[in-house]
């Protein structure tokens, strides 16, 4: 195990936590511990934005130091305005971060290899390697030489920055970056859970532990349902089998449902990979799944910041109306900055930041109009309080409108911050937004999100039932009509039951918040359910992906879990506190000398509620237990547990004949262009550019999605010409793309065989030769120049070339 890089990362995380603590104390003044749990993201958000902007001009270690300097300036400013962290709490919260960091470290150390199978680790390892070589941002695309990267790269930028700051080789920094961001999610979840329940008068430590568990550790109900399926009564087993296993059977087993049930309902044969395939036509993950899968995907690494946006929203919610400046800073400065980070890190999260802002501004006691200049606020805010229910409803609708305006402003701020990426042509090609995609069947939806929905429904029921007595008969009648309408729509319209369920919970939750009967935990539940409802109504229209919800569900669903799980944690703690205490008091009274007269109905309700919450906790715990047993326990039990963080393990073990060649290329200075055979995704293709970060003429077929099929196939044809086509044309292409090295390895030999050209020419010299690989260096001065053939080099194709 490589402990020195581990210690280096822990020290850097401690330094960022210390630097961010005073700024967090200023922002989170009205939250427990002065926001100590949020110190790390408070520092990393401005750091990443500063590096992104400075990097447009120049990128390197000096850029990172300048970014740290700007954050330090913010720290000094926070100290001068009186912000004082609770340093004991800061140290304790850093300890919580370390716990999360070590949990993920155990997963990555058991299987550190960076592989192309069934994931995009090759894409992301290539990105961090090419960023480390970059002299400015965006970097040259390592899989489309001569052109700037067309992919949101904020995640990889942060992972590369941490490796550069610690002097850690990227083969270790890849896995340590995963552990660092998981640790940040863990501590932020702890902080949000602790703060929400403490505001309700409950034990903050319990809230923090349950929050971290639900958000960062817990899993969907899928695993528990699948393992329990063989033991269900025959009357319901058929429905459960179709809901829990149907999509896996359709996608991977040719529709063989009985065989799929047999394989995936046995603990020894269970595989965590298949737990995201539940709702037909979608991929649905929880944060632990995404981190253990070990891609550097934006939708994975954005989750700590998604919940940090929730923390900023909570701080706004807790700030008195009189503190206008603080509230404006929290919404437009804090949430605006997070939205900007999302813009170039995970664009799918940009609307989420705006939505969280709108929800919070609308839910808080402070009127949304007070965020505006006083003269305008006085005109937009109702002059008097609502006296009738009709006036109350009108005032509430006006609040929603103004809150939506605040959310739109946050969205615009985010776009402005990320404008070098979003506006100037570096976004992958897409075809806009589509509406009304195929919807989710309710049974499959509940297999995935049943635990969250149960916690949401229980919170609504316990908070809302006492309010029913206060409602006049006409309102109860209207609610009944709406409820019957929702049920009717669910029965008539295909797969509308999920929308009916989510819509009912969202409306009920919002009304409870605005009536003062529920707190910020309910706002988080509404946010999570709102994102799930969005998946039923809209999707991103992406080229070359026939399934309309495929990528949208993957990128949005995990954010819904993150926010909703934080709210479910708070709801669970509240339910256990109230009903557990009532049940304990009732049991204690039964043993007293006095004649007991317990309220049987209330005792039964409390017992059922406690059992329900315990059931939710146990259901979500099955997945992490099974995953840890498979990923860590299996190797330990088999006697082949050899912990390491070296991401090149797979190369050393399975492609040893190319290892030395890949290391030789990785040691080259600058950004010389190479050429290698491209290939399909998720296979051992484009290894030279992946492990070196050097630009190749064309790499994985992802480029067809980013730049169009014609552009991708044209370059594939150019590579064929270089290896096996007419020499005059090949020479022109070598010059056009400014190729320095030609990689001839197993992939090239297998594809071209005897048709591969001879490199026994003056234009080539052997730069490296060992085992199965020969790397030729191109001497462009020896390339033929017949009627200007060498002049075909495209100036714009070399705009990002660095030597």
TrEMBL record:
Keyword Transmembrane applies: yes
Chain segments carrying region Disordered: 779-803
Source species, domain of life: Archaea
Keyword Membrane annotated: yes
Keywords annotated in UniProt: Membrane, Transmembrane, Transmembrane helix
TM region(s), chain numbering: 6-28, 35-54, 60-78, 90-107, 172-197, 209-228, 296-317, 329-348, 397-422, 442-461, 497-513, 520-538, 558-576, 607-630
Database matches in NCBIfam families: Chlor_Arch_YYY
Name the record gives this protein: DUF2298 domain-containing protein
Organism: Halolamina pelagica
């Amino acid at each position: 195990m490589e402990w020195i890089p581990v210690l280096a990362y822990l020290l850097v995380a401690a330094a960022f936590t210390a630097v961010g603590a005073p700024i967090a104390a200023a922002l989170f003044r009205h939250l427990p511990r002065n926001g100590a749990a949020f110190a790390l993201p408070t520092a990393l958000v401005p750091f990443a934005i500063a590096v992104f902007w400075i990097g447009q001009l120049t990128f390197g270690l000096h850029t990172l130091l300048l970014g740290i300097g700007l954050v330090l300036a913010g720290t000094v400013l926070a100290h001068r305005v009186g912000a004082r962290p609770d340093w004991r709490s800061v140290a304790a919260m850093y300890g919580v971060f370390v716990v999360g960091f070590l949990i993920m470290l155990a997963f990555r150390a058991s299987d550190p290899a960076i592989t192309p199978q069934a994931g995009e680790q090759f894409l992301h390892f290539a990105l961090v390697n090419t960023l480390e070589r970059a002299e400015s941002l965006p970097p040259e695309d390592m899989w489309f030489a001569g052109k700037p990267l067309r992919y949101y790269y904020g995640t990889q930028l942060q992972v590369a920055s941490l490796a550069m700051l610690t002097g850690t080789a990227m083969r270790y920094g890849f896995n340590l970056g995963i552990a660092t961001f998981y640790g940040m999610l863990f501590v932020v979840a702890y902080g949000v859970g602790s703060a929400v329940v403490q505001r309700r008068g409950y034990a903050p430590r319990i809230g923090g532990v349950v929050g971290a568990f639900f958000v960062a550790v817990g899993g969907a109900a899928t695993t528990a349902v699948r393992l329990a399926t063989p033991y269900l009564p025959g009357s319901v087993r058929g429905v459960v089998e179709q809901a829990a296993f149907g999509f896996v059977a359709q996608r991977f087993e040719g529709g063989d449902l009985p065989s799929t049930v047999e394989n995936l309902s046995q603990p020894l044969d269970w595989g965590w990979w298949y737990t995201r395939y539940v709702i037909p036509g979608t991929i649905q993950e929880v944060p632990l799944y995404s981190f253990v899968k070990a891609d550097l995907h934006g939708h994975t690494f954005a989750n700590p910041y998604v919940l940090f946006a929730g923390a900023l929203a909570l701080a706004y919610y807790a700030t008195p109306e009189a503190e206008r400046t603080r509230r404006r800073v929290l919404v437009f400065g804090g949430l605006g900055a997070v939205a900007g980070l999302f813009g170039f890190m995970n664009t799918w999260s940009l609307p989420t930041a705006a939505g969280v802002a709108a929800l919070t501004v609308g839910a808080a006691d402070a009127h949304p109009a007070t965020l505006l200049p006083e003269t305008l606020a006085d005109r937009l805010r109702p002059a008097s309080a609502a006296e009738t229910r009709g006036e109350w409803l009108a005032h509430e609708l006006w609040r929603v409108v103004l809150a939506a305006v605040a959310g739109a402003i946050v969205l615009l701020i985010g776009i402005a911050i990320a404008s070098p990426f979003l506006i100037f042509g570096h976004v992958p090609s897409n075809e806009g937004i589509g509406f009304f995609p195929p919807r989710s069947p309710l049974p499959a939806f509940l297999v995935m999100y049943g635990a969250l929905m149960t916690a949401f429904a229980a919170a609504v029921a316990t908070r809302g039932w006492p309010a029913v007595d206060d409602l006049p008969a006409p309102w109860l009648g209207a609610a009944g009509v709406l409820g019957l309408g929702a049920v009717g729509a669910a029965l008539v319209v295909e797969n509308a039951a999920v929308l009916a369920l989510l819509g009912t919970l969202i409306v009920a939750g919002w009304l409870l918040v605005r009536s003062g009967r529920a707190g910020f935990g309910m706002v988080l539940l509404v946010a999570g359910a709102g994102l799930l409802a969005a998946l039923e109504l809209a999707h991103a229209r992406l080229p070359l992906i026939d399934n309309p919800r495929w990528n949208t569900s993957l990128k949005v669903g995990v954010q819904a879990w993150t926010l909703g799980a934080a709210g479910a944690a708070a709801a669970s703690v509240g339910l256990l506190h109230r009903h557990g205490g009532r049940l304990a008091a009732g049991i204690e009274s039964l043993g007293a000398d006095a004649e007991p007269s317990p309220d049987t109905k209330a005792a039964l309700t409390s017992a059922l509620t406690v059992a329900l919450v315990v059931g939710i906790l146990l259901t979500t715990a099955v997945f992490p237990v099974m995953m840890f047993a498979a990923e860590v326990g299996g190797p330990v039990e088999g006697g082949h547990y050899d912990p390491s963080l070296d991401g090149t393990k797979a190369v050393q073990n399975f492609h040893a004949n190319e290892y030395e060649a890949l290391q030789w290329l990785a040691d080259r200075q600058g950004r010389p262009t190479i050429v290698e055979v491209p290939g399909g995704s998720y296979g051992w293709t484009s290894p030279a550019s992946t492990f070196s970060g050097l630009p190749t003429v064309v790499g994985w077929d992802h480029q067809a999605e980013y730049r169009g099929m014609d552009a991708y196939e044209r370059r594939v044809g150019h590579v064929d010409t270089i290896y096996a086509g007419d020499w005059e044309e090949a020479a022109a292409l070598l010059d056009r793309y400014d190729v320095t090295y030609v990689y001839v390895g197993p992939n090239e030999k297998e594809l071209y065989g005897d048709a591969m050209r001879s490199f026994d020419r003056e234009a080539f010299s052997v730069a490296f030769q060992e085992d199965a690989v020969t790397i030729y260096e191109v001497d462009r001065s020896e390339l033929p120049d017949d009627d200007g053939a060498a002049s075909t080099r495209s100036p714009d194709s070399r705009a990002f070339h660095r030597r």
